């Protein structure tokens, strides 16, 4: 492996971070807030580490699978490390552990926070915090490739390393075009939501912050009470629409924009996605009616927002879901495990894999009754390759195993079982809030220091979809073709 080539491409990711740090620094300068020097030093350090490899390492358009994987994983790690610098230098609630946790939570679009009082942070630091969401939402590598000149084989390898098999199966475009589609839809949705939220009554700064968080399905808010601060059904409805859109495969959204709505309407994945959300909302609304809310309109309003928020892995809140009845909390756990569609900014197992898992179980039952039958699995009239079905089932198994191990480690550290399990589910799925003290109106600050590192690791595992992380730390496997 040519390590200098890896450094060159990782440098582009660092430069991207330095641009947003620089914008945050300008906000600090014009507001004369105390975060200026932390942001200025962080911008300079990150930019220098980004520029040096570009000066001394010659460009190349050909990289190997091993190099592509290393670039992706190191870009995430070093971006999280660079992203923690403004927090560390600012101090206050940010110990090194807290700064790392908040940075990882931002870039992985998890939205879990150690902050007890979010509103005490300067606007510039709140903007940087939201920027980590936006950069990480579409993927650091995808963002970099979207603005780089054509790189031949390099962009294909990096795109394949960054995007999982479930996403690639649904793209019918070359890597360069697919990257531009992703970036174009992402930026377009962000601008649209920010403008609409501003029109609906949010100030411009909050509108930008919340559009960053919504489209990235991240959940970092500039308000302690999250979306509950506004107590506005109109704002909630706008965010619901954009959360749902952000949970759909971006290629399908691009098709709708381009006038091809047929694929969108025929997609069984999208139908399951919306139907599942609808059923979850109805059951939750019935369950919380009379227990938490005394009228049906309020029950439906809060059920719809919070189920969709969790089901898209966004993590915004309009009420304390930790005090909801057991059935409603169990439904939230299910949606936190499943989340939205592959090809979106959502985390979790993904709707696509759940559908494949369900069809695989049904086929197995049918084969028990008809041992000699040939029963292919189809989605939208297309036969799914056995290899892809097997990978989906394996992924679900490994995913749940990681959640179990994380929960076990947290309980060994003295964390309450409910908080340990829900926190592991929420961070692995990049959802954000768990239940109990780490619920939608709580925070992760009171967890043990080691527990924060465990959950930081689960966030990265969830964002990198497990296998990239494992392969990176088992060099003997790098010689094999990366296919997951």
| Helix percentage | 55-70%
Largest sheet: 2 strands, antiparallel
- Total beta strands: 2
H/E order of the elements? HHHHHHHHHHHHHHHHHEEHHHH
Q: List unreliable stretches of 5+ residues.
A: 153-159
* Order of adjacent strands in the largest pleated sheet: 1-2
Average per-residue pLDDT, rounded, comes to 86
Structural class: mainly alpha
Overall 3D form: globular
Using only C-alpha atoms, the radius of gyration works out to 22 Å
Work out the helix count. Answer: 21
Give the termini distance in whole angstroms.
Answer: 21 Å
The amount of beta strand, in percent, is: under 5%
Task: Write a concise keyword list for the protein shown above.
484 residues, mainly alpha, 21 helices, globular
Quick structural summary:
This protein has 484 residues and is mostly helical.
Detailed description of the structure:
This protein is an all-alpha fold. It has a domain at 3-230. Helix content is 66%, strand content 1%. It is built from 21 helices and two strands. A two-stranded antiparallel ribbon has the order 1-2. A hairpin with a 2-residue loop joins strand 1 (378-379) and strand 2 (382-383). Helix 9 (175-199) runs antiparallel to helix 11 (233-246), helix 11 (233-246) packs parallel to helix 15 and helix 18 (386-412) runs antiparallel to helix 20 (449-463).
């Amino acid at each position: 492996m040519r390590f200098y080539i890896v450094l060159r491409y990782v440098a582009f990711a660092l430069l991207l971070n330095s641009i947003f740090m620089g914008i945050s620094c300008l906000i600090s300068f014009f507001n004369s807030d105390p975060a200026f020097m932390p942001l200025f030093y962080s911008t300079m350090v990150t930019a220098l580490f980004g520029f040096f490899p570009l000066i001394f390492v010659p460009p190349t358009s050909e990289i190997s699978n091993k190099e592509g994987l290393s670039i992706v994983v190191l870009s995430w790690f070093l971006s999280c490390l660079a992203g923690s610098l403004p927090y560390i230098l600012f101090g206050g609630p940010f110990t090194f552990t807290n700064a790392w946790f908040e940075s990882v939570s931002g870039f992985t679009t998890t939205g879990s926070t150690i902050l007890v009082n979010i509103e005490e942070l300067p606007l510039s630091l709140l903007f940087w915090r939201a920027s980590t969401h936006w950069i990480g939402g579409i993927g650091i590598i995808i963002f970099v490739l979207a603005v780089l000149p054509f790189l031949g084989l390099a962009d294909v390898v990096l795109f394949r390393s960054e995007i999982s098999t479930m996403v690639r199966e649904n793209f019918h475009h070359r890597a360069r075009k697919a990257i531009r589609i992703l970036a174009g839809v992402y930026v377009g949705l962000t601008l649209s939501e920010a403008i609409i939220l501003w029109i609906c009554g949010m100030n411009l700064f909050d509108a930008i912050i919340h559009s960053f968080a919504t489209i990235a399905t991240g959940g970092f808010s500039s308000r302690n009470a999250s979306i509950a601060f506004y107590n506005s059904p109109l704002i909630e409805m706008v965010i619901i629409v954009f959360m749902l859109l952000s949970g759909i495969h971006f290629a399908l959204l691009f098709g709708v924009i381009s006038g091809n709505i047929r694929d969108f309407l025929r997609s069984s994945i999208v139908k399951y996605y919306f139907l599942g959300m609808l059923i979850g909302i109805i059951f939750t609304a019935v369950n919380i009616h009379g227990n938490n809310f005394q009228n049906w309109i309020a029950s439906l309003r809060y059920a719809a927002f919070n189920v969709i928020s969790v089901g898209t892995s966004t993590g915004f809140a309009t009420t304390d879901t930790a005090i909801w009845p057991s059935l409603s909390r169990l439904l939230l756990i299910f949606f936190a495990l499943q989340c939205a569609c592959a090809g979106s900014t959502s985390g979790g197992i993904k709707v696509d894999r759940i559908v494949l898992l369900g069809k695989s179980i049904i086929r197995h039952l049918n084969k028990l009754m008809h041992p000699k039958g040939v029963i292919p699995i189809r989605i939208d009239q297309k036969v799914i390759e056995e290899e892809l079905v097997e990978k989906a089932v394996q992924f679900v198994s490994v995913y749940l195993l990681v959640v179990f191990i994380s929960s076990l480690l947290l309980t060994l550290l003295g964390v309450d079982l409910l908080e340990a399990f829900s926190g592991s589910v929420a961070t692995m799925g990049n959802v954000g809030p768990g239940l109990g003290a780490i619920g939608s109106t709580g925070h992760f600050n009171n967890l043990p220091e080691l527990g924060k590192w465990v959950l930081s690791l689960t966030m990265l595992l969830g964002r990198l979809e497990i296998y990239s992380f494992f392969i990176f730390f088992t060099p003997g496997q790098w010689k094999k073709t990366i296919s997951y």
